[in-house]
Amino acid sequence: MATLKYAMPTERQAERFRFGVFEADAATGELWRKGMRVRLAAQPLQVLFMLLEKPGALLTREEIAKRLWPDGTFVDFDHGVNSAVNRIREAIGDTAANPRFVETLARRGYRFVAPVEKLRGGEDAPLDPSATAIEEALVLAEQVLLRATAAQTSFLASPEELPAASHRLARTLFLLLQVMYFGFYVGLLFNLAEVNELLSALPKPEIWFGVAVVSAAVLIPLRAYLLSALFFRAPGMEAKYLRLWPFLLPLDALWALAPFLLLHHIAFGVALACTALLVYSPFAQRSLVLMGAARSESAQRF
Question: N or C: which terminal CB in the chain sees fewer CB atoms within 10 Å?
Fold first, then answer.
């Protein structure tokens, strides 16, 4: 791997940027938060300055790679770019899911979405680097909490980690999964006597029977909403689904057991195999939405 040769461009040596409670000084290569310096490595800091130079404009992954590795010797630049942006977000308390500063444009790059104030040399006095012990502790606690949250969600795929797929394919697969679940719910309600007989072998069968019937009754209108929203191309569907996903996850995990309600018709081994596949279904739906299932064809990013 090539060694990074870090140097700020000369034309902005006397330039500083202020956004929110942060100030970034290009002359010294430093980032400050309310007067307290924020530690940030050279590569992420260089990417941050690139974003601050053109707030609101797309900064492609290729542009970032060309600046960080001008000789082209770093072959896995995708991982390097992702890592640099993640370090920026950790430092400024941002997230990819709900960006306040750095927004990801899937498979294209990034853009800085917050207002940026550019300060030329001598125009404004530098922020006082002194900070109280209480404020330092609050900043440290905020960074620790952010890292803990990021660690909890790191197993979920990000848009950059997913393969490119056509809008039509992602949309079709997502719709088929909704139809599959809809069939589960209707099938259960259509065969209540058979389901009740199967559940009678479990402890407190009336509770399990009630959970199955109530969850089916709740999820039928929810699946109908998802089907109609995608069919009629409702605006903002991607963001709405991602907000619904944490609620759907435990319910879809519960309904992964649906094949066992068919034990009068299929073998136990087949039911077990189907359940193992269905456990992945909520994660597959989330990935398909991130791959473009909920966007219009004109809004495709790949």
Answer: N
Q: What is the pLDDT of residues 138-174, one digit of tens each?
A: 555 555 555 555 444 456 766 666 777 787 888 899 9
Backbone angles phi, psi at 31, to 5 degrees: -120, 130
C-alpha span between 146 and 294 (Å, rounded): 28
Whether the pTM exceeds 0.90: the reply is no
- Domains observed in the chain: 10-160 (1.10.10.10), 163-299 (no CATH)
Query: What average pLDDT does range 10-29 have in this prediction?
Result: 77
